[in-house]
Amino acid sequence: MLKRPSVTPPHIGRLTTGPRNAITDVAGVAVGHATLADGPIQTGVTVVHPHSGDIYRDRVPAAATVLNGFGKSIGLMQVAELGALETPIALTNTFSVAAVAQAQIRQCVAANPQCGRRLPTVNPLVFECNDGYLNDIQAMAITEEHYLTACAAAGPVFAEGAVGAGRGMSSFGLKGGIGSASRRAPIADGSEYTVGALVLSNFGRPSQLTIAGRAIGPLLEEKLASTAQAPDEPEKGSIILIIATDAPLDARQLRRLSLRAGAGLARTGSVFGHGSGDIALAFSTAYRLPQDPAHPMPSVAVLHDALLDPLFQAVADSAEQAIIHSLWHAETVVGRNGHRRQALLDVMAGQLSTSPEQRT
């Protein structure tokens, strides 16, 4: 699952990456998957842990931007109001949101028996995309066990492509899925911070695909048409973009970061189509917000707004890179009713440069 493609993906922008070029380059962040790949069942769960402790007790600041609201996520309203995460971030298919949210609640209650009694209720946070082309979404195959499996598997090294929540996803008429990337952002005050992105990529029409500034779409459209793959249909997909950083930012500033994920998304050819649920969430690991009012809130010196541009650049570049990685690492998958999505590297064999093409 962790095998890397032999063709090197292009590096986006001038900023350097972290050691893994993944969201887990932000210290403390962990990612895990549970993948279901059995005939018509092609789906899964992916979780992002902001830190290794009890996030219900020690929350992290966060904020989200809804670029296009054609989505069925749960938990965004409280994140917008309170500016904090109190569960791991979970990704799955559209019809499994309720099952995963219930699993998050049970997990929290098991660790905090007074949750919903003496302690406040917990805000589950589940994002979704519709994998119904490849996956029998009506089977509602995801259970609490799969969420817990993904949590148990979480670590700094994880697979990308057709894994976890990304197993049944499609992008640009190709196999989509999970992608990740990171960038180091030097700040004018002499500090340096890491920004990481993870995407659940399930959006885009073949004609739109742009990779590192190169319009791949027209050639891709021709190749898919020649193999009797899906035509250039109206936008029906979605994308979830998760941004992590170790920069000390408050929820207002994190919302500004989340908005810049849309810049990276647009560079790949997306126009945030009518039927696409495009949501970005950003969180910081620089400090924690205690659930218990007896514990004092942290006194944090956040970055000055005038210093945020390098972080904005890092968000846009890492989000774009993560989308490219979701395509680059995917494998061809056959699912429900024989539906098939080919991997980018299978369809475009010999058409993608083996040397990194850098766009500045």
From TrEMBL:
Gene3D superfamilies: L-amino peptidase D-ALA esterase/amidase
The keyword NADP is assigned to this record: no
Pfam families registered for this protein in UniProt: Peptidase_S58
Keywords: Aminopeptidase, Hydrolase, Protease
InterPro entries from the UniProt entry: ArgJ-like_dom_sf, Peptidase_S58_DmpA
SUPFAM superfamilies: DmpA/ArgJ-like
Molecular function as annotated in GO: aminopeptidase activity
Family: Belongs to the peptidase S58 family.
The protein, known as: Aminopeptidase
